[in-house]
Amino acid sequence: MGSTYPSIDGELAAFLSAQHVFFVATAPLDADGHVNLSPKGLDSFRVVDPYTVAYLDLTGSGIETVAHLCENGRIVFCFCAFEGPPRIVRLHGRGEVLEPSAPDFGKLRPLFPAFDGVRSIIRVEVQRIADSCGYGVPLMQYEGDRRQLIAWTEKKGPEGVAGYQATRNRRSLDGLPGLKPRGE
Prior knowledge:
Elements: E1 3-5, H1 10-18, E2 22-26, E3 36-40, E4 45-49, E5 52-58, H2 64-72, E6 74-80, E7 88-98, H3 103-108, E8 118-132, H4 148-168
Antiparallel strand pairs: 1-8, 2-3, 2-6, 4-5, 5-8, 6-7, 7-8
């Protein structure tokens, strides 16, 4: 039922871009560490080229994806069709964290909407692309994006978000380093 693909072609890029939510999974090297699975949305995913994808990492309560990528680079994305024909696509790859001070951050940032509270851009070299049927995924209708994260970052302001990141995004659940404080 499933297929693998050598690269992200136009049809596959269109499918990925049309999904309103995607999931990102990472894990630390320590077998006792916490595996992380995060849902993402808000028009934050982009296909950069046939072998590279990126997403805009917005401020959140945890820093697991960043910490895991800095430790070992392993990542998988999962996209499910909740509308239209059933389909699941997984992108396995090696990721890197581009904080705002990284040279390539400025090159990729214009690809995304102008959100406040951006922590980093996660760029991934895709190594395996596979799909499966998705017959068990429910049909659901998209109603719109939630506004709470955008409102929260607007209310906090840049200094408040930076303070939050400095205290809440320094270490992962397992104690791995997360974001570097601004200016380090």
